[in-house]
Amino acid sequence: MDEIQFKSAFDAVRFALCYSTQQYGETMMAKRLRGESTGQGMGLVGVDGAGQAGIIRRKLWELPDLHLAVLIARTAPHDTPCSCGRPCCSRSRPNAEWGAAIGWLTEASTAYVSGFSHYRVRRTIIENIFTPKKLRKKPGDIADECAAHRNTVSTQNAAVRKWIEGCRKGDEKGVEQVAWEVMERRFADLALLQTAVAA
Question: Could you tell me if 52 and 1 are in contact, meaning their C-beta atoms sit under 8 angstroms apart?
Answer without folding.
Answer: yes
